[in-house]
Design goal:
About 30% of the residues lie in helices and about 30% in strands. With about 400 residues, the chain is α/β, with parallel strands linked by helices. The longest helix has 14 residues, at about 80-90. The structure holds S-adenosyl-L-homocysteine. S-adenosyl-L-homocysteine binds next to helix 7, strand 14 and helix 9.
């Protein structure tokens, strides 16, 4: 039987939660020392024991659980999950109907009312990511709900708990049709090869859809494009399809080479005409400077943290330095697509990093466009801190 626990909230948290804040932190509780089982239902009350909300206990690095409803009578059962899912699916009606896009996010955790649960769509296949043992304890109900609401061609899942949000190596297949990988999905008419059963990542980060489109449609024609931290080269594909004269993709991971070749190949691009470098981006900056290489467009999309034998990098600390290195190999009048998914700072802060880099190098710039999460990556109303993606497209003046 699932545990049902009454928990008293501190008054500040009562206010936040009443306003729709979905995350439960340890600090929100009057008695955080009470032991709870993963998946316990939490009946949250104020200091006068009045009902505030219902949540569940599930440890993530972010917090200890999530609010599920503020209606006292609402039960957390298959019907509840099916309702959340059909609301989420209805919001993505345009994407379901689009012929030129077949990969997108269907359910974005707290933004769709269930923190810790992410569901992505890849051409009829569904990929479910579980972020805590607590939410995973609802697995049967959630899969039943999903199958009631949509037509699932095949189901895959990733367990991202017990290992600090890292991925647990396993067979990700759950039920339905087994995919033949690579599966080719479409995004605004571009093809991307994905594999739903090959480690933590699928080959594409769906949250950059609008940025890839912008790069293709507005910034690539006749340009040389450098794609740093390129992973499978998704931005490079967009650049070539947008008419780039040449792309250079740089990533440290050995697998990025065959994966990038594959992304070019499925789009009918001659990959031998493109440059793909397996190397540390920071070494590449030195290499490029030594060879007097300069680019018209540079894409910067580093991981929030990176560690190599020689160095550690954190976007929160080192972004200005990364931009300064980039400026040395960007043509005057060129474009920098500066991106970060680090949730620990906001857009305003990110722009101060950009400003610092330009001020330190005595260069001026213009912000041409800004992007955050696309519409299928729903975030809770009034809480922009859940909108972790920040992309600024910058024109380098001289
Ligand atoms: N921009 C990519 C996603 C980047 S994921 C896209 O849009 O698809 C981060 C990538 O950075 C990973 O592929 C990782 O291998 C790479 N990486 C991490 N540290 C690096 C470094 N120091 N030099 C080059 N690549 C690095």
């Amino acid at each position: 039987m699932r545990q049902l626990i009454e928990m008293k909230l501190k008054s500040k948290s009562v206010k936040d939660i009443t306003n729709g804040y979905p995350l439960l932190s340890k600090e929100a509780l009057e008695n955080p020392e009470v032991t709870m089982e993963e998946g316990s239902i939490l009946h949250l009350v104020d200091t006068n024991n009045r009902y505030v909300a219902t949540g569940y206990y599930g440890l993530q690095n972010k917090g200890i659980g999530w609010v599920l409803t503020r209606k006292e009578k609402e039960k957390i059962d298959t019907k509840f999950f099916a309702k959340k899912m059909s609301e989420a699916v209805a919001k993505r009606a345009n994407l379901y109907e689009a012929d030129d896009t077949t990969a997108f996010r269907v359910f974005n955790g707290e933004g769709d009312g269930i923190g810790g649960l992410i569901i992505d769509y890849y051409d009829g296949f569904y990929m479910v990511s579980w972020y805590s043992e607590g939410i995973y304890s609802f697995r049967d109900d959630i899969y039943q709900a999903l199958n009631e609401v949509v037509n699932v061609r095949g189901l895959y899942e990733k367990l991202r708990f017990n290992t600090n949000g890292q991925y647990l190596e396993q067979d990700d297949y759950v039920s339905g049709e087994k995919g033949e990988f690579p599966l080719i999905v479409l995004e605004n008419g571009m093809k991307y090869a994905v594999d739903l059963n090959d480690g933590a990542m699928t080959g594409i980060f769906l949250d950059q859809r609008n940025v890839r489109k912008a790069l293709r449609d507005h910034y690539s024609k006749g340009k040389t494009v450098l794609n740093t931290f390129s992973y499978t080269g998704a931005f490079s594909v967009a650049a070539v399809l947008g008419g780039a004269t040449e792309t250079t993709s740089v990533d440290l991971a050995k697998r990025s080479l065959p994966k990038t070749i594959e992304q070019f190949a499925v789009n009918g691009i001659d990959y031998e005409a493109q440059d793909i470098k397996v190397m540390n981006v920071f070494d590449y900056f030195r290499y490029a400077a030594r060879h007097d290489l300069k680019f018209d467009v540079v894409v910067l999309d580093p991981p929030s943290f990176a560690r190599t034998k020689k160095m550690t990098f954190s976007t929160a600390k080192d972004y200005p330095k990364l931009l300064k290195d980039t400026l040395k190999i960007t043509n005057d009048g060129g474009i920098i697509v500066a991106s970060t998914n680090n949730a620990s700072f906001n857009m305003k802060k990110f722009k101060t990093f950009i400003d610092k880099a330009f001020t330190d190098t005595n260069k001026s710039y213009r912000v041409l466009e800004e992007y955050q999460l696309p519409e299928d990556f729903t975030v809770p109303h009034n809480f922009p801190e859940f909108n972790y993606l920040k992309v600024v497209i910058i024109k380098v003046m001289n």
